[in-house]
Amino acid sequence: MPTVLITGANRGLGLEFAKQYAADGWSVIATCRNPIGVGELAQIEGNIAVYGLEILDPASLTRFAADLGDKPIDVLINNAGVYGPKPVKAADVTVADWTPVFQTNAMAPLLVSRTLLKNVKASERKMIVNISSIMGSIEKGAGPSEYIYRSSKAALNMAMACYAEEIAETGVAAVMFHPGWVQTDMGGPNAALTPAESITHLRASIEKLTFTDSGKFFNYDGTPLPW
Ligand SMILES: NC(=O)c1ccc[n+]([C@@H]2O[C@H](COP(=O)([O-])OP(=O)(O)OC[C@H]3O[C@@H](n4cnc5c(N)ncnc54)[C@H](OP(=O)(O)O)[C@@H]3O)[C@@H](O)[C@H]2O)c1
Q1: Given the CA of residue 11, which atom of ligand 1 is nearest to it?
Q2: How many CB atoms lie under 10 A from the CB of residue 11?
Q3: What digits encode the pLDDT tens for the residues 131-161?
Q4: Is residue 133 in contact with ligand 1, taking CB distance under 6 Å?
Q5: Which of 88, 116, 143, 149 has a CA between 20 and 30 Å from the CA of residue 172?
Q6: Which fold has domain 3-219?
Q7: How far is the CA of 83 from the centre of ligand 1 (A)?
Q8: pLDDT for residue 142
Q9: How far does residue 49's CA lie from ligand 1's centre (Å)?
Q10: 8 CB under 6 A from ligand 1?
Q11: Does the reported pTM lie above 0.90?
């Protein structure tokens, strides 16, 4: 069976990805900042291995990549993300608030992807999936608020669209997905979708991807989204 690697797999969408792929018989590499006492993640049955990975810490990433060795990864899911503070006015934006959100959402997925590219390249499916957001779409999402999160996801989209072109010759594809508005700690209890609904759709959409989709931005149901 194929192998999927998920960042931020201890709760929210990452946990649901791990549950569904494990139930489907995939080999699951579930990563999270602190693998000790990960509750629900530790209880998932199947072919699942849990690793510690703090995506903002280069030493953690280097250690993790060494532990992984040459293991092929069919689908790498850059899921870990943060919302951060929600300034509604430019005057309220601070560099101190903006920086960690930008590092987590926009920069870390590229650093994780480039570190694990050899593993994805060694697989059959060769797919990098980035969990972005419609909030990063300038056409769909721009509004006079939420500067920090919106800009971080727009930057993720651009960084990974550039990377998709750079790695095209390796046969590895990189795509962006909006998961919908989902009932997680980030999405809140009033969100439109349950994690199970979002991830069921996302997995079906990921399953249909081909290399020609590389560099594109999709809704969770597989329909294209504008930048
Ligand atoms: N929920 C929505 O409605 C929605 C909508 C659009 C996009 N998204 C995107 O979907 C992805 C998952 O969101 P979610 O709703 O599942 O959020 P969540 O419930 O807040 O979970 C976020 C996950 O990311 C992990 N994480 C954050 N920073 C990390 C770091 N530096 N290193 C490693 N892991 C880190 C968290 O780990 P800890 O437990 O250690 O903090 C947690 O596992 C995010 O990229 C988010 O932007 C969500």
Answers
A1: 43
A2: 17
A3: 999 999 999 877 778 899 999 999 999 999 9
A4: yes
A5: 149
A6: Rossmann fold (3.40.50)
A7: 8
A8: 72
A9: 19
A10: yes
A11: yes
Rounded Cα gap, residues 41 and 15, in angstroms: 6
In degrees to the nearest 10, what's the CA dihedral of 32, 34, 37, 40? -20
- Name the residue with the closest Cα to ligand 1, atom 17: 186
DSSP string, 45-102: -SSEEEEE--TT-HHHHHHHHHHHTT---SEEEE---------SSGGG--HHHHHHHH
pLDDT at 145: 82
* Regions of the chain where pLDDT drops below 50: none
Transcribe the chain into DSSP letters. Answer: --EEEESSTTSHHHHHHHHHHHHTT-EEEEEES--TT-GGGGG--SSEEEEE--TT-HHHHHHHHHHHTT---SEEEE---------SSGGG--HHHHHHHHIIIIIHHHHHHHHHHHHHHTSSS-EEEEE--GGG-HHHH--SS-HHHHHHHHHHHHHHHHHHHHTGGGT-EEEEEE--SBSSTTT-TT-SB-HHHHHHHHHHHHHH--GGGTT-EEETTS-B---
Which residue lies with its CA nearest to atom 36 of ligand 1?
Answer: 8
Task: Give the per-residue pLDDT at 128.
Answer: 98
Residue for token pair 């903002």: 56
